[in-house]
Write a structure and sequence with these properties.
Layout: E1 11-15, E2 18-19, E3 32-41, E4 47-54, H1 65-71, H2 75-79, H3 84-99, E5 105-109, H4 113-125, E6 136-139, H5 140-148, H6 156-161, H7 173-189, E7 198-199
Helix pairs in contact: 5-7
């Protein structure tokens, strides 16, 4: 096992949205229905805290059968969820009070969709500005590619390639975050240095 190297961040914020969807056709507008983030300590790679809420969609409040089967999120869970503006304000409060705007943190995602496409689209719907701190992130698939020479399309090839055990349900946001955190830890154990891979204006 390679030795872990010091990182330039104090925390990695592992994020994985789930959103309204249907089989073979796009839903307009697509809306976030699960908003999970894990605060991972960049020295220990343990989860220090988490933010997790279900979000009640406004434009397409009834989930499709496909969406419920894919994500295992139930209609009851989103019906009991809060509207996006409320969840987003609570998220911003969590960032400020739990993570700290002055601390060095980096969002970690599996792909670029969450922060490049979904969050800006959702913010547009609600006339919100995307916070500056959400405009830079690390796509863990690129770190995996650097360490293995293989660029994969999804999470499971990384789980299998690193000989990890998959936790929970695929496409359940909080479970996906836990698996991404395990991938992050496994790559750190191989001496990976984590740096931003994408930034938007």
């Amino acid at each position: 096992m390679a030795k872990r190297i010091p990182q330039q961040f104090e925390y990695f914020l592992v994020l994985d949205f789930e959103a309204t969807c249907d089989d073979g056709k796009k839903i307009h507008p697509q809306e976030i229905i699960e908003f999970p983030v894990l605060k991972v300590n960049a020295k220990t790679y343990e989860v220090d805290s988490q933010f997790h809420h279900f979000v009640k969609p406004k434009h397409n409040p009834k989930l499709t059968d496909f969406c419920m089967k894919l994500t295992t999120i139930t209609q009851e869970e989103v019906d009991a969820g809060k509207p996006f503006p409320v969840v987003f304000e609570e998220f911003d409060k969590w960032i400020q009070e739990d993570v700290g705007l002055n601390s060095k943190f980096l969002f970690v995602t599996c792909g670029d969709w969450d922060l490049k496409t979904m969050l800006p689209s959702q913010c547009d719907l609600e006339n919100y500005q995307v916070p500056v701190y959400c405009k830079t992130w690390l796509n863990i698939k690129k770190s995996y590619a650097v360490m293995t020479g293989e660029y994969v399309k999804g999470m499971m090839p990384m789980i299998n390639g690193l000989n990890l055990v998959h936790i929970g349900c695929l496409h359940r946001g909080l479970d996906d975050c836990r698996n991404i955190a395990n991938i992050l830890r496994a790559l750190a154990d191989q001496g990976c240095k984590f740096l931003p891979t994408m930034a938007i204006d």
